[in-house]
Automatic annotation (TrEMBL):
GO cellular component: mitochondrial inner membrane; NADH dehydrogenase complex
Family membership: Belongs to the complex I subunit 4L family.
Membrane topology label: Multi-pass membrane protein
Catalytic activity line of the entry: a ubiquinone + NADH + 5 H(+)(in) = a ubiquinol + NAD(+) + 4 H(+)(out)
GO BP: any one term: ATP synthesis coupled electron transport
PANTHER family: NADH-UBIQUINONE OXIDOREDUCTASE CHAIN 4L, NADH-UBIQUINONE OXIDOREDUCTASE SUBUNIT ND4L
Single GO MF descriptor: oxidoreductase activity, acting on NAD(P)H
Keywords, comma-separated and alphabetical: Electron transport, Membrane, Mitochondrion, Mitochondrion inner membrane, NAD, Respiratory chain, Translocase, Transmembrane, Transmembrane helix, Transport, Ubiquinone
Chain segments annotated as transmembrane: 6-22, 29-49, 61-81
Gene: NADH4L
Its job: Core subunit of the mitochondrial membrane respiratory chain NADH dehydrogenase (Complex I) which catalyzes electron transfer from NADH through the respiratory chain, using ubiquinone as an electron acceptor. Part of the enzyme membrane arm which is embedded in the lipid bilayer and involved in proton translocation.
Subcellular location: Mitochondrion inner membrane; Mitochondrion membrane
Identification of the protein by name: NADH-ubiquinone oxidoreductase chain 4L
E.C. code: 7.1.1.2
């Protein structure tokens, strides 16, 4: 395993671990998701440049676009829940009651 591959995979696993263990605030979950998406973006970009593949050259930009859409909708949900519940704590949000 090259050092670059190790760094990218460890950054993805760090984001996944943060998502698993630090789910108290919604903002921390969104930051962990963004870290995971950015490590995937860097990994796909480096993989495409090392293999000189031109057939999948649009994949990193598509992933980055979907990541931006995900972060925008996540922040919109964060603002909406902060306004209705007064906090971004995940334990105060129950999906069964409105």
């Amino acid at each position: 395993m090259t050092p670059t591959t190790f760094i990218i995979s460890s950054s993805f696993m760090l984001g996944l671990t943060g998502m698993a263990f630090h789910r108290e605030h919604m903002l921390s979950a969104l930051i962990c998701l963004e870290g995971m998406m950015l490590s995937l973006f860097i990994g796909i970009t480096l993989w495409l440049t090392t293999t000189n593949s031109t057939s999948m050259s649009a994949a990193p930009m598509i992933l980055l676009t979907l990541s931006a859409c995900e972060s925008g909708s996540g922040l919109a949900i964060l603002v909406a829940t902060s306004r209705t519940h007064g906090t971004d704590l995940m334990k105060t949000m129950n999906m069964l009651r409105c």
